[in-house]
Amino acid sequence: MNPADVLVIEDNPQNRYLLRFLLEKSGYVVREARDAEEGLAAVEDQPPGLILLDIQLPGMDGYALARKLREKPELDRVPIIAVTSYAMAGDRERALESGCDDHIEKPIRPLEVLALVDSLLRGQAA
Amino acid sequence: MTPLQIGRVVGGYAIVAVLYILLSDYLVATWLPDDLGQAVGTGKGVGFVVVTALSLAALLYGIAKAERKRYVTSVQEHPAPMVVSDPSTGSLLMANPAAEALLGRRQDELRQGTLDSLGSMAGGLLTLPGDGKRIAVLSSPLQVDGKVLNHVILRDETAKMAAEARLSESERRFRHAIEEAPLPALIHAEDGEILGMSRAWTEITGYTREEVRTIPDWVERAYGEKGPKVLSDIYAIYLYETRHLEGEYRVRTKFGERIWEFTSVGLGKLPDGRLHGISMASDVTERVAAEQALRESEELNRSIVENAPDLIFIHRAGKIVYVNPAGVKALKVRSEEDIVGKSPIDLLHPDYQAIASERIAKLMQHPGTVVPAIAVKMVASDGVPVDFEVTAVSYIQRGHLEVLVVCRDLTPRIQAEAEIRALNEALRRYAAELEKRVDERTQALGEALERATEADRMKSVFLATMSHELRTPLNSILGFSALLLQGLGGPLTDEQARQLRMVQESGEHLLMLINDVLDISRIEAGQMQLASAPFDVYDSVRRATSTLLPMAETRGLEFRVVVPDAPLALVGDRRRFEQIVLNLVSNALKFTDTGSVHVSAAAEGRELRVVVADTGRGIAEEDLAKLFRPFSQLDNGLARQHEGTGLGLVISQRLAQQMAGRLEVRSEVGKGSTFTLALPLEGPRA
Predict the structure, then answer these.
(1) Taking Cα atoms as reference points, which of A93, A90, A117, A88 lies closest to residue A6?
(2) Chain-centre distance of CA B540, in angstroms?
(3) Using one digit for the tens of pLDDT, what is the confidence trace for B205-222?
(4) Which of B457, B462, B471 best tests the A interface by mutation, with the highest count of A CBs <10 A?
(5) ipTM score here?
C-alpha cells in the first residue's frame, strides 16, 4: 500500500482526467478504473493509499462497491472518498454507512478535494 | 129585596096610578059639572098623593115581609145545624131541625135559653154534658128586616176530634219508631220540611236536625252539584204519586262518601193536609266496593285471558268448555261456538294425538299436575297445520277437574328462525363475496401501490439521473476552470484568465439554476427528503451569513448578524436550513441598494425565529402573493436582471413548511422588507 497511490473510480473520462491531473500535479500517483469491476481488479492488483469513488457508476453503483471494498481486510485502513452528485438528502449518510470515510459533491472544488485527500493520507501516515 | 121584587112593586104602583088617572079624567069629563070637576081636579091631585103614599107603604111592607120569610125558610131548611140568637141577650130565637137533632132539644125547649146554658163553652167549642158531644160554634151578626141577629152555625166535631186524638198518638209512636230505627231514615213533607230523622241518620251523616231542617238543606250537603236531580227524585213521590221510589246514591257525609240505597215511600196526608213521606237508606258502601273489586278482578282476569296472544282453552271431562279469542283466530274458526264442546284431541294433527292423550291422562290423575311444554301441530279449520308449543295444568274448579291449556303459536318463531337462517346464509354469501371482492381489491390495490411505488421509484431515479447528468459536465467545466485559474495548467495571459473566469462564472450560474430546478422538481414530485439530525442553528446562521459578507461589502451595505452565543439545538436538515437562510439573506442583499440588512436569530417560546430585515425597495402588496409562486420572477424579467431563477423563495417556503414551520414576509414599498422564518424547536412530529 503506497500512501501516494490514489485510485480514481469514475466512469466519465473528463472527470477522470480532471482528478488525475489535479492529483498528479500535487504529487500523487493516480490509477484509474472506469467501473466497479475495474475498481475491484485494481485493488486486487495492489491496495491503493486512497480511493476516490464516484457513486453514480454504470452497473454496480458506488455504494455497493464501497461495501464490497470494505469487506477486504487489506483495504481496512484505506480511506474511501465518495463523490456524489447531490441527488438526494442523505447521500452523505448513505456513503458513510456504505463504508466511505468522507464524501464530496460534484461539481468538485479542486482545492477542497486536494485538502481532503491530503488530510486523510496524512492522518493515515501518522 | 131583589131588583125583581122592586120592579114588581114599582110596576103595581104604576098600573094603579095610571088607572086612577084615567078613571078620574073620565068621571070629570062625562059625569061631573064643571065646578065639581074643578073640585075633583083638586081631589085628583090629593088622591094622587094619597095613592102614591099608599103604594110606597105597601111596597116597603111587602119587601120586609118577604125578606124575613125567606131567611127563616132558608135557616129552617138548611142541612147544617144552625141557630139564631139575640145578640144583646144571647137568647135563642130559633133553631133548625138539624140543630134540634144535634143539641137533642126541641125548638120550644131551646127558645128563650142561651147556647152557653146548654153546656160548657170554651174557645168557640161547646161541650154538652152527658153525651160529651163537642160542637164547634161559629157565629156571625146578620141584619134581617132591619134587626140585627146572631146567626150561629154549629158543627159536630166529636168524631173528628176523637180521630185526631187517635191519629196523633199513632203518629207519635210512628215517629218514635223512626227516630229509634237502626237505619238512616227521614220523614218529610211535600213542602220539604223534615219532620223526623232517625238517630242512625245523624250518627252516620254527622248532620244534626239543626243543620238539616229541610230536604233542600240535606240535598245540598249530601249531593252538592247533583242536588237538584236528587231533589226531583225525592219530590217525585209527591208529584206523581208514585208513592214508592228506590235508587242508589252517593252521599257525602261529614265523614266521607257513602253509597246508600234509598227507598222513599209516600205516607199520605197529614192532619194539616200536607202530603208526607219517608226515605230510608241502607248503607251499601262496603257491598258496592266489594262488588266493584270483584268486578274489576273478574274484568282483569277476563282481560288477561281474552287479550292473551297465546291460545288458551279449558277442557273438562274431555270437552272444551272455553277458548279465548286468540284461539278462535289461530284455528281460523268463526266463533268459539265452533270449538266449545269438541274434544281437545280433535284439534290436533293425527301425529300428535297419541302423545296428547297420554299427557291428558297424566293431568287428570292428579289436580295440580303441570306438564312441560311440547311442540305439536294443530289443524286449523282450513286444514292447514299450525305449529304450537303447548303447556297445561290441571286443577279443581267447583268440584270439576279442569285442564288449562296454553298454546303458543310457533309460526312466527319458526318463520323468524327461517328468516335468520336465510339471513345468515345471505350474510355468509355476502361475506364470501365481500371477501372475494376485498381480495380482488387488495390485489388491485397492491398492483396500484406497486405501480405507484414504481412511479415514485422512477421519479426518484429520474431526478437522481438528471442531477447526475447535469452535474457531470459541470464538474469538468468548473473543475478545469478552477484548475486553470489556479495556474495548475501553466501560466495564463490576463486575457485568458479573464475569459476563463467568464467560463467559471457562467458555470457557477448554471449550477445554481440546475440546483434550483432540481429542488423545485423534487418538491413538486414529493421527492424532497429532509435529513433529521441535531445541529446548532445559531452556528448554521453564522456560517450561512458569513459566506455573504463579501457581497455585502461589495454592495456597500450595513450588514449586521445578531445571534446568541449559546448553542441552540434543532433536529432537522442543517443544509436545507442553511439554504433557506442563505436565500433570504442573499435576496435581501441583492434587492437593497442602500441602507442595511439585519439578520437575527432567537428562540421565542418553542419556536426558532430567524428574521432578515432590509431597507430595500420593498414589495408592493399585490406582488406579495406572487412572491411564493414558482417562476413568478421569471415572468417579469427580474431573474435576468438579478441572476436568479425566482425559485429561491418558493423553495425556501416549501422547505420551511416541510420542516413544520413557516416563512412570512412583511413589506412596505420604499422602506424595505422583513422575512421571518419560524421553525418549531421540538422538530416535526412523526
Answers:
(1) A117
(2) 80
(3) 888 888 888 888 888 888
(4) B471
(5) 0.83
